[in-house]
Write a structure and sequence with these properties.
227 residues; Metallo-beta-lactamase, Chain A; six-stranded mixed beta sheet; 24% helix; alpha/beta
């Protein structure tokens, strides 16, 4: 499998391009609208056919590039069915699977950061969005987030994956690129507090709202085509 981890320095966002090297069919995860030209150039250079542009959730810190990629390339877009994004081609839910070449991207519902978060599993890799970061996790204080729900998503869904599963998060703020389920079980300082400690910590982070939330969320409800 071809896998490329791409970065948006303005929002600390990782975008992932996955492809089957034989069929050249590809999927992009968590695209950023300002980086669409970069992504299209790479896709064309590599001779890939982009089948799907999917998002792990309705982002509050950046505008998705999924809608623009659909206009430019003709791919299908997908987001969690619970988010009610009517412009998306696919309303994704637990158990769904997206085929690209000989590979399948399997959908897990991992809410808590927001009410409609998804994680994507492909072979020994999991793309966790904002549900699980490297030694951290996404906040739970907006978009119907809930710390108890996120704790369950991490410990009952993501930690149920094999220990050697590579974790690819949607963001990192400390220069880390990837982790494993085993590493996070052992070293994630939030989750190792246990449920009560985790919920108390998450409910008392007192973080400022994302700078672009009032622009990003409405735009992402329109597939990123109306900022």
């Amino acid at each position: 499998m071809f896998l490329r981890q791409l970065f948006d320095e303005a929002t600390w966002t990782y975008t992932y391009l996955l492809a089957d090297e034989q069929s050249k069919e590809a999927i992009i995860i968590d695209s950023v609208v300002e980086k669409v030209e970069r992504d299209v150039k790479l896709i064309n250079e590599l001779g890939l056919t982009l089948k799907y542009a999917v998002d792990t959730h309705v982002h509050a810190d950046h505008v998705t590039g999924a809608g623009l990629l659909r206009e430019r390339i003709g791919c299908k877009t997908g987001v969690a069915s619970s988010e009610g994004v009517s412009c998306a081609d696919m309303a994704l839910k637990e158990g769904d699977s997206l085929q690209f070449g000989k590979y399948a991207l399997k959908i897990l519902e991992t809410p808590g950061h927001t009410s409609g978060c998804l994680s994507f599993v492909c072979d020994d890799k999991v793309f966790t969005g904002d549900a699980l970061f490297i030694r951290g996790c996404g906040r739970t204080d907006f978009q119907a987030g809930d710390a108890n729900t996120l704790y369950d998503s991490i410990t009952k869904k993501l930690y149920a994956l094999p220990d050697n599963t590579t974790v690819y998060p949607a963001h990192d703020y400390k220069g880390m690129m990837l982790s494993t389920i085993a590493e996070e079980k052992a070293h994630n300082p939030r989750v190792t507090l246990g449920r009560e400690g985790f919920v108390d910590l998450m409910n008392n982070l007192n973080l400022a709202m994302p700078k672009h939330i009032h622009v990003a969320v409405p735009a992402n409800m329109k597939c990123g085509l109306d900022k």
